[in-house]
Amino acid sequence: QVQLVESGGDLVQPGGSLRLSCAASGFTFSIYTVGWYRQAPGKQRELVAQIAPHISGGDKNYADSVKGRFTIFRDDAKQLGYLQMNSLKPEDTAVYYCNAELKATTYNYWGQGTQVTVSS
Question: In this predicted structure, what is the pLDDT of residue 73?
């Protein structure tokens, strides 16, 4: 059974840090592109960060709004994806979703989301 399970969301003060985790099971995680998306109330879901499979070079890309503050990485041996978020801002408040996509195929999986709230 394919599963992506996010964890690590929390309430944090502005300037704080969080690390989100995404646990994958039921598929070969290492060959998938892993992405973190977020959706704030009343807004469309947007891509935050993405990391290609190591076999494809492991390239990373980030939304301009998080560059220099967020870092995406993966541990294929443990089938885990991560999003390290530093210098959090209130505008980072959203539900964060993990995504695993096998490029050029229809294989595309989503987690259930984890809430990140940045507020004093």
Answer: 97
Measured CA to CA, the distance from residue 9 to residue 115 in angstroms comes to: 5
Distance CA 53, CA 27 (A): 14
The pair phi, psi for residue 54, each rounded to 5°, is -60, -35
Residue 97 and residue 110 in contact, taking contact as beta carbons nearer than 8 Å? yes
Q: Are 36 and 83 in contact (CB under 8 A)?
A: yes
Mean pLDDT to the nearest integer, 39-50: 97
Tens of pLDDT, residue by residue over 93-120, are 999 999 999 999 999 999 999 999 999 9
Question: Would you state the torsion angle of the CA atoms of residues 74, 2, 10, 39, taken in this order, to the nearest 10 degrees?
Answer: 90
How distant, in Å, are the alpha carbons of 15, 48, 112 from that of 72? 18, 9, 19
Q: Distance between CA atoms of 68 and 112, rounded to whole angstroms?
A: 26
Tokens 């978020």 -> residue: 85
Contact 40, 48 (CB under 8 A): no
